[in-house]
């Protein structure tokens, strides 16, 4: 991708988005040859839990991350469940991160297996972002035995969107000349930042593609979608001025479930909280971010919503700790009405490595 000069004579940015292919599952298949070629789900078991990651063989059967283990087994009865080894995933992630840093200091990790890189002024003085991305992919393969997909463009939105186009082991470049046509043809549910619920609302408004989104005025989008309408207006025009921020960290991590049938007793509530806690545990490990405040969110059948929070002295780092606090919060609530939704989230995040073997204790 050529470096274009803008009116202010500043070079156009060159952004690479790297996403490892089925990272957890690929590490398991690399380390255990008997798993290669088989549908693998990391996390959970056939009886309970949540899938943290699925191999491409499992994805062919509709298995994906955040799916319940029972649903995954129903979709693919011969699926192989393996326990996550986050210590190994973190070690491999550090290997990959060190490769990134050979090319640029402007690396913004999104999780263990995903990051943005700004290579506009890179350490190796490479003129081509495409070539840089290919070198990084090749080096990852050589050093870890794993494949990665890359998206290359002049802003973060387009780079991330491009990554998914040729997975696995893909490399997609979107140049400034290609951007408008690319966005116009892009289905609305493929836009980064447009989730399932928002996509459905957009489709109900006649917005099925980028071309449709471009027809909307900014004020109308804000009226329909709130402040995020500004973002939708900008990305439909290939505008994204966000910098690659090496110090970025999420404010919170969490998971929630809305139930088809309302929960009517506290035992059912606690069973679902255990499942949600497994999902949260996977997310904090994936993002290597730890917090000290856990929040329980409850929405009752009459749509009344309440939250309860607790802050502890040490980082919340595992499923057991999440459950101890969640059950304590649960006992503070009077469960007099059926429950429509439950959620757990951890806030006050940082990336400091918590003390090993630190046990939390809670009064009951």
Compact summary:
The protein is α+β, with helices and mostly antiparallel strands and 364 residues long.
Describe it for me?
Among the domains are: 23-87, MutS, DNA mismatch repair protein, domain I; 181-245, 5' to 3' exonuclease, C-terminal subdomain (DNA polymerase, domain 1, Orthogonal Bundle); 252-347, Dna Ligase, domain 1 (2-Layer Sandwich). 37% of the residues lie in helices and 21% in strands. The protein is built from 13 helices and 12 strands. The chain has a 5-stranded mixed sheet with strand order 5-6-1-7-8. Helix 10 crosses helix 11. The termini are far apart. The model is unreliable at 1-9 and 353-364 (pLDDT under 50).
Q: Keywords, please?
A:
364 residues, alpha+beta, MutS, DNA mismatch repair protein, domain I, DNA polymerase, domain 1, Dna Ligase, domain 1, 5-stranded mixed β-sheet, 4-stranded antiparallel β-sheet, disordered N terminus, metal-binding, DNA-binding
Please outline the helices and strands.
Layout: E1 15-20, H1 23-31, E2 40-42, E3 53-54, H2 56-59, H3 69-75, E4 80-82, H4 86-101, E5 107-111, E6 114-118, H5 129-144, E7 148-153, H6 156-163, E8 171-173, H7 176-185, H8 196-204, H9 210-214, H10 218-225, H11 228-235, E9 252-263, H12 266-287, E10 291-300, E11 305-316, H13 319-330, E12 339-347
Parallel strand pairs: 2-4, 7-8
Antiparallel strand pairs: 1-6, 1-7, 2-3, 5-6, 9-12, 10-11, 10-12
Helix pairs in contact: 4-5, 10-11, 12-13
